[in-house]
Amino acid sequence: MQRILVVGVTGAGKSTLARAVGERLDVPYHEMDGLYFCGPGWAVNDKLAETVSRIVAEPRWIIDSIGYPEVRDLLWERADTVLWLDYGRRVVLPRVLRRSLRRSLTRERIFGGNRETWAGWFSREHPVWWAWSQHTGRRAEIARRTSDARFAPLDTVRFARPDEAAAWLASL
């Protein structure tokens, strides 16, 4: 495990697991949303492909994402391990709700200095709506990729429940 993708639906705990694995294995952790959103107003990094290319050229890294479309194949082709948090809506939706409530209440700064707002809750782009609407499709995309012959060399570890991921992490 030198080049690791932590994948799953919104709210599965990808960033939390990636950070913890990175610390335990001393592998540099990169937050994909932090790479993608680069400034106020949810400005998008127009050099994302270049940034990600530099990261994945390194011998060791961990990234918490299936990858945005423009870098998805690059990530999957360079990774050697996929940690898949394959959790149902009953697990992820309460997590997303709690996280978004906290961020909205505390006005916590996230990616590029942006904040989740109360008005944002009415947008289809809000994490709660996104987690609900993208859940089935994202799981299917990850399942397709993990069974794709192009990515057969990847060591895939699939966790169906948070306690499985916690036990695996404790065993590292």
UniProtKB/TrEMBL annotation:
GO molecular function, one term: kinase activity
SUPFAM superfamilies per UniProt: P-loop containing nucleoside triphosphate hydrolases
PANTHER family: TOXIN (PTHR37816:SF1), YALI0E33011P (PTHR37816)
Segments traversing the membrane: none
Keyword Nucleotide-binding belongs to the record: no
Keywords: Kinase, Transferase
Listed name of the protein: Adenylate kinase
